[in-house]
């Protein structure tokens, strides 16, 4: 979501700051304010001779979004660079949530501004990070749970396939057992009974294995 320049209504008038916006400027120092829960950077535009309010999205934007939006609002701006309090240049990939955790310096062409971050905003950013971390943990747990369910479903299908295969293998043995039982009654009682006993033991062993599979 792009940064917005709050210049008022469609008539192009400068946006009047309400009491809900805590925005204070003093010389080359600018304090970031808050409007409707979002940080607001009020920055003078050198070519247009007016102040533009940039609404920041801490968890969606980076320093690159900030510098690009400032340049887009004033064609006379050629250079926008941010520096940390100790003079190190802030990377364009730095998140706005990290940027707003301490004061920083903003250079627009040859103009230099000291951007002040209110203490309550810093604590709010930390709370926001904690809330975001909690959301991420919940999502991770849900994702893990879904993966476990998928694994269990896959395992269940695999076991069902094994059961069907074993049932197919047992069917001929059962048929053979019944045929031998009928023959033993007519021909050789003792030999037939021994064969039946062996087949029954084989069937019992296979059935036991099937029950073990079902219990997994």
UniProtKB/TrEMBL annotation:
GO cellular component, one term: uniplex complex
Any one GO molecular-function label of the UniProt entry: uniporter activity
Catalytic activity: Ca(2+)(in) = Ca(2+)(out)
Domain Calcium uniporter protein C-terminal: 73-190
Compartments it resides in: Mitochondrion inner membrane
Membrane topology term: Multi-pass membrane protein
This protein's UniProt keywords: Calcium, Calcium channel, Calcium transport, Ion channel, Ion transport, Membrane, Mitochondrion, Mitochondrion inner membrane, Transmembrane, Transmembrane helix, Transport
Family: Belongs to the MCU (TC 1.A.77) family.
Protein name: Calcium uniporter protein
Protein's organism: Geodia barretti (Barrett's horny sponge)
